[in-house]
Amino acid sequence: MIEAALQFQPTEARTFLQEVAARSGQNLAACYQCRRCAAGCAVGDETGFVTPNRLIRMVMLGDRDQALSNELVWRCVSCYTCGERCPNDIQTARITETLKKMAKEEHVPALQPKVAHFHDAFLESGVRWGRVNEMEFMGAYEMKNAFLEARRFRFGAIMSEIRQQMRLGLAMLRLKRMHMGFLKSGGRAEIQALRRKSQAARAAR
Amino acid sequence: MQLAYYPGCSLKQSSALYDVQSRRVFAELGVTLQEIEDWNCCGATSAGKVDDFLAVAMAARNIGIAENSGFAEMVIPCSACYSRTLVAQQRLADDPALQQAVNGELRRPVRGGLKVTSILEALVERVTAGAVAQQAVLKFRDLHPVCYYGCMLTRFPYRVTVSDSVENPHGMETILEAIGVRAIDWNYKTACCGASAAVNDPQTAMNLMGRIFQDAVARGANCFVASCPMCQMNLDAHQETFAAALGLPQRLPVYFITEVLGAAMGIPPEELQTDRHFIDGTDLLKELEPHEHDAD
């Protein structure tokens, strides 16, 4: 995997770095590659080559394609250990969060589609009802997954996902940890107005 | 005494037992947790990954409600809600333009000044005042817990004032000490359980939880104590899976700090709804004896 070394894109580097820095609120240029972040990364076993410091280098080199689609961006669990230990106060988890948003806006397919589906479904439920309804949002999440798998003709994956969720659901039902009522907040109109404001600001940019 | 209380969505659904326990335990300590009216979802971690403005704005509405209802302090049991709300408050204070943009859509705008506290901070304050030890009428015979804090009580995506030690928090140990329980020291108290990865990237989450579990077992713990509903649910609901994958026969109940505290206060287990765990922990919580308070 190492042969796919970082690519320097001189025309892109400056603007890409500035964009990621501004949106994440992190001063990426302060990174001196000490790798304390890499040493503490909770998902280091899963992400392989792309450690937090290498992600920063990727952005600085302007390697946009790799930066938007790599294991670290899509497997980061936002535990914030990297940022807590960074001697230069760079919260790399904010950078992975920013790159996820940029990937979505630029229609770059998510490397871990289920991760994107989860967070989208969660926030949609929260904005739609004012409160997140666990069953409704999990249903919406699984629909997004099933739709993608069906387009790839992977019906076995859909069935195994349903079986797995059924098992957990039944256990929760037995322990009375499944909520049958429906949560709503009258404040959802305000939340939806705030979302329109956010979308308008993004469109203006 | 009355404090504003933000339960959040999880405490109204899959972790309803934590809501019941929190209110009950604080009532014993002479504190009424007053749920703020018409609260909304805080956005949790997902908001930070989908929409930065909403990540602040959703939590801001709840802060505005608490402030405009005349509260000076709001207690939040869920770590994700606590983190999101604390960060939103700090970002609004640091960025007047952002505060203006958010307040523009809010019926009850944020003015600033509300104290946002985690349930552990609020409990530790009562430990210091001596109220917790005073209410502890029973003592556990055989409870050897490890305290599990997870990520969101001490590590934040934005610079805020952290209420406990970042790498070695001890709020829960302090609370347990007040009821005569000595928690076991271990290495994974602030490790990550994977949170939503348990749903959307199970292999990653099972690896993370497996490591946490292995250390707890190696130290001789017979239960976990947690304060985050997501950590609690993950370690509890998936324990069969990750413990079996490691070939470990032990199963450790995952308690909320409030049910351990509640049991020591003499609240019956049925009232604390301790039978709603995946890994059964009712027996361990019943092994109690009268607390011999030091003569003072």
Q: What's the arrangement of secondary structure elements?
A:
The complex is a heterodimer of chains A (205) and B (296).
Chain A: H1 10-24, H2 36-40, H3 44-47, H4 52-60, H5 64-68, H6 71-75, H7 81-85, H8 92-105, H9 113-129, H10 134-151, H11 155-174, H12 188-204
Helix pairs in contact in A: 1-8, 9-10, 9-12, 10-11
Chain B: E1 2-5, H1 16-28, E2 32-35, H2 44-50, H3 52-68, E3 73-76, H4 79-94, H5 96-103, E4 115-118, H6 119-128, H7 131-135, E5 138-140, E6 145-148, H8 171-178, H9 197-200, H10 202-218, E7 223-226, H11 229-237, H12 239-245, E8 254-256, H13 257-264, H14 269-272, H15 282-286, E9 288-290
Parallel strand pairs in B: 1-2, 1-3, 3-4, 6-7, 7-8
Antiparallel strand pairs in B: 5-9
Helix pairs in contact in B: 1-13, 3-4, 4-5, 6-8, 10-12
Walk me through what this model shows:
The complex is a heterodimer of chains A (205) and B (296). Chain A is mainly α and 205 residues long. Chain A contains 12 helices and no strands. Chain A has helices at residues 10-24, 36-40, 44-47, 52-60, 64-68, 71-75, 81-85, 92-105, 113-129, 134-151, 155-174, 188-204. In chain A, helix 1 packs across helix 8 (92-105), helix 9 (113-129) packs antiparallel against helix 10 (134-151) and helix 9 crosses helix 12 (188-204). The longest helix of chain A is centred in the C-terminal third of the chain and has 20 residues, at 155-174. The model of chain A has no long low-confidence stretch (mean pLDDT 93). In chain B, helix 3 crosses helix 4 (79-94) and helix 4 (79-94) crosses helix 5. Chain B has helices at residues 16-28, 44-50, 52-68, 79-94, 96-103, 119-128, 131-135, 171-178, 197-200, 202-218, 229-237, 239-245, 257-264, 269-272, 282-286, and strands at residues 2-5, 32-35, 73-76, 115-118, 138-140, 145-148, 223-226, 254-256, 288-290. Chain B folds into 2 domains: 2-119, Glutathione S-transferase Yfyf (Class Pi), Chain A, domain 2 (Up-down Bundle), CATH 1.20.1050.140; 137-290, Rossmann fold (3-Layer(aba) Sandwich), CATH 3.40.50. Chain B has 296 residues and is α/β, with parallel strands linked by helices. Chain B is built from 15 helices and 9 strands. At the A-B interface, helix 7, helix 8, helix 9, helix 10 and helix 11 of A face helix 2, helix 3, helix 9 and helix 10 of B.
